[in-house]
Amino acid sequence: MRPPLVLTVAGSDSGGGAGIQADLKTMLALGTHGMSVLTAVTAQNSLGVQGAWELPVAAVRAQYRSVVDDIGVHAVKTGMLSSAELVEAVAELIDGTDAPAVVDPVGVSKHGDALLAASALDSVRTRLLPVATVATPNLDEVAQLTGVRVGSEADLRRAASAVLEYGPRWVLVKGGHLPGDAVDLLTDGSEEHWLRGPRLDNRHTHGTGCTLASAVACGLAKGQPVPDAVRAAKEYVTGAIRSGFALGAGIGPVDHGWELGRPS
Ligand SMILES: Nc1ncnc2c1ncn2[C@@H]1O[C@H](COP(=O)(O)OP(=O)(O)OP(=O)(O)O)[C@@H](O)[C@H]1O
Ligand SMILES: Cc1ncc(CO)c(N)n1
């Protein structure tokens, strides 16, 4: 039987822990067929991002059309979009596609390297967020996009409302950077779902955000309602963080294949 079809529009992480590579590994692990539209190439490893090169808008559009017009998609996920021009082109492509979209408004890498130009923030707010079925900002991205600073779990509701003002159907505010339990809030403005995971004492967390957003897209491609897709995605990323492993001299990746087991 044909698996559900999921498309990621994101940047390449040469180290294989985040970006397109994390997305495709997640899609395989979760029983879907992963496809990719590359927006940028990064030279990246466990220590940070050493370089980044954007693709021309025409190359991004052409990849997207090649996939959607022939193969089709059941869900789209976006990650690193780099510039205002790319954000706007991708928003327009998603708007013309009959499939749910998970928008991970990637701003900076775990090491603080910029993956989105400051001049692109307004396009994210006014063009990309309105076409999102689910937006998945972390706390730094919430602050950049809305000005709301989250210092505790109690602030998550205010942060979520501020993001919803820009028009995504649902928002998943990730509280992963807060101390204590790893608590995320999913809401559409009327329903609220609190996702509480244990805080795992593992520094090898490269790729958590990409992995979570891709897993949500996989659930949506399978036809799951948003809260079910997010709940399953949270379980998947929690397992992947638990099995995250050391690579290089810095922060290693989460283990996308944690459910598959490893040969001894
Ligand atoms: N140490 C941890 N233990 C358990 N769960 C965690 C931990 N760190 C993050 N999470 C969870 O991982 C998911 C991704 O959240 P996070 O805040 O790390 O995203 P992100 O900052 O966008 O990731 P990235 O750094 O890859 O861009 C969330 O569900 C969050 O609660
Ligand atoms: C290419 C890429 N996309 C997303 C992230 C998430 O931080 C990253 N580190 N690299």
Automatic annotation (TrEMBL):
Free-text function comment from the UniProt entry: Catalyzes the phosphorylation of hydroxymethylpyrimidine phosphate (HMP-P) to HMP-PP, and of HMP to HMP-P.
GO terms assigned for molecular function: hydroxymethylpyrimidine kinase activity; phosphomethylpyrimidine kinase activity
Pathway(s) of this molecule: Cofactor biosynthesis; thiamine diphosphate biosynthesis; 4-amino-2-methyl-5-diphosphomethylpyrimidine from 5-amino-1-(5-phospho-D-ribosyl)imidazole: step 3/3
Gene3D superfamilies noted in UniProt: 3.40.1190.20
Lineage: Bacteria, Bacillati, Actinomycetota, Actinomycetes, Kitasatosporales
Name of protein: Bifunctional hydroxymethylpyrimidine kinase/phosphomethylpyrimidine kinase
Pfam families (UniProt xref): Phos_pyr_kin
Reactions the enzyme catalyzes: 4-amino-5-hydroxymethyl-2-methylpyrimidine + ATP = 4-amino-2-methyl-5-(phosphooxymethyl)pyrimidine + ADP + H(+); 4-amino-2-methyl-5-(phosphooxymethyl)pyrimidine + ATP = 4-amino-2-methyl-5-(diphosphooxymethyl)pyrimidine + ADP
EC identifiers of the protein: 2.7.1.49, 2.7.4.7
InterPro entries linked to this entry: HMP/HMP-P_kinase_dom (IPR004399), PM/HMP-P_kinase-1 (IPR013749), Ribokinase-like (IPR029056)
Entries under NCBIfam families matching the protein: HMP-P_kinase
PANTHER family according to UniProt: HYDROXYMETHYLPYRIMIDINE_PHOSPHOMETHYLPYRIMIDINE KINASE THI20-RELATED, PHOSPHOMETHYLPYRIMIDINE KINASE
Keywords tagged on the record: Kinase, Thiamine biosynthesis, Transferase
Positions of the Pyridoxamine kinase/Phosphomethylpyrimidine kinase domain: 13-255
